[in-house]
């Protein structure tokens, strides 16, 4: 729910409208009480016009702010459309959760609503009632209008900056890095601990998904409680971000003591395990370690499409992917183990391996950028950079991708200079895999 509220455009503007109505109703009442008690030094700074002038000011503010709000919304929609068509549909989350956009819309709508609310309290001399002009309220409306003008300038500057691909890649990289640091520990576990991960027996109980969608989050506390209640070990072998189909297994469970499950225990365990998995209709970064890499890969592939043909953007995206992969290589990607009070392993949560993450970042750019030497060169550099951060167990995966890059380059009709440069970079990857320095770079 927190992630859904953060990525929607309406919550903050809706809150601004509610606050504007509240203040627009309460502040004129305060005006009535302190109208004759304002010190002369302060009264000179308040609105001093009559009812007609107050109505004109408030009407002008309300009319201009609703027009500016429509302009702001139109610019936001155009930006979203451009980001979706030019870069990647999965970048829309980055724009929709932009606090600048949300705050700007909230301020404009709040100012418009406040001006209308105060306008209804301005009273001319009618029916024997004395005229009333909420001087403080009109002054606040004027100040809000000035702040809105300044905010519009800042918003346009921010929009022009954020629409650049470099800023988008920076934001995606920052969000992905924050997710990695939040979910993964610095150092990997010992080999013995990795070897001690429980394996499901052949007759393990399948745990089907309750509904179709993308696995967004796993409720670890609920899953651990279900496993303890059933005296079982639960394995979830689908990572957050995986596509789930209703009725298909997402994992398995088996009794801790070897005794078969009772019928009621089986049904309750299956139901509670399915309830601990949250599905969404889209990929989300809440627990998905690979979400940032997927966004960067989408940008790279989109840039390499014939309709766009922007290899520079693809190279920049691969640079960010390389930085994330190097960070992931230093993190613990082994399955997450949850233990009961006695220290026994009860829940095993699978995580993506470095091989899977490297394939996500390299496979599609290699396929669609095969005819571009700059892309192949950046892929070689990515593998070399990752090799310097990898362990002995991870290096065969890097070597396998190097073989694919070499074969792809060999199949292209490149200029001899380009071919020699790529060969030098590939040799540099091999030297980095052996830990020798400096690698050969042509």
From TrEMBL:
Q: What is this protein called?
A: DUF2254 domain-containing protein
Q: Pfam families given for it?
A: DUF2254
Q: Which UniProt keywords are present, listed alphabetically?
A: Membrane, Transmembrane, Transmembrane helix
Keyword ATP-binding tagged? no
Span-the-membrane segments of this chain are: 12-30, 56-80, 100-119, 139-160
């Amino acid at each position: 729910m927190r992630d859904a509220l953060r990525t929607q455009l309406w919550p903050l503007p809706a809150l601004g409208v509610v606050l504007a109505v509240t203040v627009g109703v309460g502040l004129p009442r305060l005006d009535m009480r302190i109208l004759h008690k304002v010190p002369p030094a302060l009264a000179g700074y308040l609105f001093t016009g009559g009812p007609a002038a107050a109505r004109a000011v408030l009407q002008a503010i309300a009319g201009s702010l609703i027009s500016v709000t429509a302009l702001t919304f139109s610019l936001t929609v155009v930006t979203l459309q451009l980001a979706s068509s030019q870069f990647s549909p999965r970048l829309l989350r980055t724009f929709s959760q932009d606090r600048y956009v949300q705050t700007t819309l909230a301020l404009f709508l709040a100012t418009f609503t406040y001006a209308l609310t105060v306008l209804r309290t301005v009273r001319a001399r009618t029916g024997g009632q004395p005229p009333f002009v909420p001087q403080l309220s009109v002054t606040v409306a004027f100040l809000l209008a000035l702040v809105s003008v300044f905010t519009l300038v800042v918003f346009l500057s921010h929009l022009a900056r954020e629409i650049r691909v470099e800023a988008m890649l920076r934001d995606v990289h920052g969000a992905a890095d924050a997710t990695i640091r939040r979910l993964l520990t610095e150092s990997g576990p010992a080999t013995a601990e990795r070897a001690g991960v429980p394996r499901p027996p052949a007759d393990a109980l399948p745990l089907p998904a309750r509904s179709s969608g993308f696995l967004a989050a796993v409720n670890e506390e609920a899953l651990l409680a279900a496993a303890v209640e059933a005296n079982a070990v639960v394995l979830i072998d689908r990572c957050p971000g995986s596509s789930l189909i209703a009725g298909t297994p997402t994992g398995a469970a088996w009794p801790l003591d070897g005794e078969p499950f009772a019928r009621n225990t089986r049904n309750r365990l299956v139901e509670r395990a399915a309830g601990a998995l949250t599905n969404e209709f889209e990929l989300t970064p809440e627990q998905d370690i690979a979400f940032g890499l997927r966004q960067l890969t989408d940008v790279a592939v989109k840039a390499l499409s014939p309709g766009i043909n922007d290899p520079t953007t693809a190279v920049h995206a691969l640079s960010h992917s390389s930085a994330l992969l190097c960070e992931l290589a230093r993190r613990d990607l082994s399955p997450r183990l949850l233990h009961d009070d006695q220290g026994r392993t009860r829940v095993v949560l699978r995580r993506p391996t470095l091989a899977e993450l490297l394939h996500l970042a390299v496979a599609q750019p290699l396929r669609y950028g095969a005819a571009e030497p700059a892309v192949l060169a950046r892929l070689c550099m990515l593998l070399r950079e990752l090799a310097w951060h990898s362990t002995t167990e991870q290096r065969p995966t890097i070597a396998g991708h190097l073989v694919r890059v070499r074969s792809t380059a060999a199949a292209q009709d490149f200029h001899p200079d380009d071919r020699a440069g790529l060969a030098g970079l590939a040799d540099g990857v091999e030297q980095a895999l052996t830990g020798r320095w400096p690698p050969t770079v042509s």
